[in-house]
Amino acid sequence: MKLKTILAASFLLVVLTSCSNNKVETENTETATQVVDGITTSTFKVWGNCEMCKETIEGSLKVDGITKADWNVDSKIITVSYDDKKISLDQIQKNIASVGYDNEKYKGDDKAYGELPGCCQYDRK
Known about the structure:
Blueprint: H1 2-27, E1 32-36, E2 39-45, H2 51-59, E3 66-71, E4 77-82, H3 89-98, H4 110-114
Antiparallel strand pairs: 1-2, 2-4, 3-4
């Protein structure tokens, strides 16, 4: 009987620990923005998988007003530097969604997502 109790308690501990780790990951996805010398820099989460995703995500931001875009494959965080008089953070997030990638504010376009290579089709939220 003691063995069953110990096993049940151990299993419960593992389950609770696993859940808490997943929760931490989702809480760290808030958008952060700062302005230095007239250049606005924002960071936020963009779902994706690989280097091809990186090219597509960053490519969607090669527009007037954006000076730099860097998406990290491992963390899924993009850092974008831009002139907020020429383009808004909202428009930046819409540009990324238009090529099929979910971000904190917008779900990726379903048609564009369906046309992504298989390695780029991430688990959608």
